[in-house]
Each structure stands twice: as structure tokens, then as C-alpha cells.
């Protein structure tokens, strides 16, 4: 049996997930948590589960706050409506990341992924399992951006490039550029490396939007949609850039 915990502050969502998990005979639900405060108290006073299904945004904070206060060896499948937290999730024992509404096939796949990381005797080195998870991590598919007092979801396939300017990282679409909460280093870890490439310290580009590539005197990339500044491939990145283009 897999001892499992649900962290979810929306009661209908918690009940739905509980019903979905009841279809898996190997899952043993040990508790349901609704807040950061309750979570810290529960983990302090109870044996930790093997697997956690956790929403990210709770009424009194982020579920990350629980695991930053209480160390746990449990693995976490995050469930949320937005995936701008992907990077932090994978740094906190995350084995998968399910976007709401959760589909049956996605839930089943996440559970099977967790089981595949476990040896037959349910032992295993946590660090070894983490390395396997890192190799199999989910890539960022959409980003939540703020426009004044409004929020907008931008699909990463709509982004021609990410670029830094005055210590802020922006994403460029056909409409305009939007500020993000990421750094370029963080984005490198969670973007699809088949589509996105870091050409220099300032730009990550999307291969789907490459319009032209000049090779003399330097490698310069033109995108269908880009900021005013030229995009030049760093000399030490030219070989990797050409290999990436062939791979795409």
C-alpha cells in the first residue's frame, strides 16, 4: 500500500481527488490537509506518507511553505490551475505536476510514474530516485503574467523568446512583451530544450519563430517577433546552437 496524503483547501476539489484515488487499490489515504498551518502541525506529529497530492495556492500561503519548514522524504504530485511554480515544485521532491482539472489518464500516469521509481522492495536511495525524477521532469507549458490588475495565461508555444532587460525577464509574443517572475537560468531548467535555446546571457529563443540566421561576421538570429535589440549567438555557444538546430 502507498500511504498517501491530500493537501487541498477547496473541499469540492479534495472530494473529487479522493474519489479518483479510491479507484486505485494500492493507494491508502491517511489524511486531508487544508492549510499551511494545519500541514506543519500534521507533519510534526504524524508519520510521513510516501506520496502527497498537493495544491500549491492555499488560503494561508503556498504549500511550499510546509515543506520548507518540515523536511520530508515523501514525494509530491502537485495539482494546480497554473504552472508558473514548476521550477520550485521540482526542487521540493516533486515527481509530477498535474494541471486542473485533473484528467483520469494524467492521474493514472502520475501514480505509475511514482511506482516506477520505487524498487520492488520499496527501499531505495532517495537521492537516486530524485535523479530519475529530474531526468523525467515535466516542462513548462504555460505562464501566468500580470497586466496591471489582471492576469493572463500565455502558452509557452506562443513565446518567440525570453529576454532580460533591467534585471527583469520578459516573454515576447506576437502581441507584445510581458514581464515574468522567472530568471533566464530558471527558465533553462523548465523549458522544452528541443524548442528553446539560450543563445547568450540575455536571450532564450524558440526555434518555431526563427525567421533568418546571419553567419557573418557573427551569428545573428532574426525572429518573427522580437524586441528591438539584436539577438547574437555567443561565440562559445555557436557549436551547441548549430547542433540544436540540426536536432530540431
UniProtKB/TrEMBL annotation:
Protein name: LytTR family DNA-binding domain-containing protein
Matches recorded under SMART domains: LytTR, REC
Residues making up the signal peptide according to the UniProt record: none
Pfam families the UniProt entry points to: LytTR (PF04397), Response_reg (PF00072)
Residue span(s) of domain HTH LytTR-type: 143-247
Keyword Phosphoprotein included in the entry's annotation: yes
GO MF term set: DNA binding
Keywords: DNA-binding, Phosphoprotein
Residues that bear 4-aspartylphosphate: 55
Phosphoprotein recorded as keyword: yes
Positions of the Response regulatory domain: 3-115
UniProt organism field: Chryseobacterium edaphi
